[in-house]
Amino acid sequence: MPGVLSLVRQVFVRAVMATVATFRPDVVLVVKGGFLTPRVLSAIRRSKAILVNYATDDPFNPRVSTPEIRASIPLYDVYVTTRKATVDDLIHAGAREVVWIPFAYDPTLHFPESPRDAQEATAFRSDVAFIGGGDEERASVFAELAGRNHADLRLYGGYWKRYPSLRSF
């Protein structure tokens, strides 16, 4: 599989570079940037485009980041994070400008939908539901809640299977 991933990465990088060269954007918005090495980002910077990273993951957490992502931090003109706790770390890592934007809720967009039928209602009914990745700090909170056995808990997202006490949720 590593060979396939390497090939996908090469194709992606070529497509990005070709697009930057022909389209000549004013701004390039990167979300996380796992496939973009410092060398590729430096080439994009030479195009004079403003380079912005929007990161919902912690770039200093080795479970969800890579050394290349961390090495790329100083190459972005603006580094946007949804994690207030990483702002100082990003500055120390050489970020030129850090913007913290919290996750948001808009009641006109985010509201409960009625289940289509009784089966769907049963499948998704819970007292507490969490949608998001199974980060270590989250896992400890939900393990504590699950251990109290007072609430019907449901966890949706990646990496929850890493925690034996939470696999059934």
Alpha carbon gyration radius: 20 Å
Q: Give the overall pLDDT as a whole number.
A: 85
Range of helix content: 25-40%
Tell me the structural class: alpha/beta
Number of helical regions: 6
Low-confidence region ranges = none
Q: What summary fits the major beta sheet?
A: 4 strands, parallel
Question: How is this structure best described in words?
Answer:
The chain has 6 helices and 6 strands; from the N terminus they run H-E-H-E-H-E-H-E-H-E-H-E. Helix 4 links the parallel strand 3 (78-81) and strand 4. By secondary structure, it is an alpha/beta fold. The mean pLDDT is 85. The protein has 2 domains: 2-100, no CATH class; 118-166, no CATH class. The strands form 2 sheets. The chain has a 4-stranded parallel sheet. A two-stranded parallel ribbon has the order 5-6. The protein is 37% helix and 15% strand. The protein starts with a helix and ends in a 13-residue tail after the last strand. The protein is elongated, with a radius of gyration of 20 Å.
Secondary structure elements and pairings:
Blueprint: H1 2-23, E1 27-31, H2 38-46, E2 50-55, H3 67-72, E3 78-81, H4 87-92, E4 98-100, H5 118-124, E5 128-131, H6 136-148, E6 153-156
Parallel strand pairs: 1-2, 2-3, 3-4, 5-6
Quick rundown:
The protein has 169 residues and is α/β, with parallel strands linked by helices. It has helices at residues 2-23, 38-46, 67-72, 87-92, 118-124, 136-148; strands at residues 27-31, 50-55, 78-81, 98-100, 128-131, 153-156. The model has no long low-confidence stretch (mean pLDDT 85).
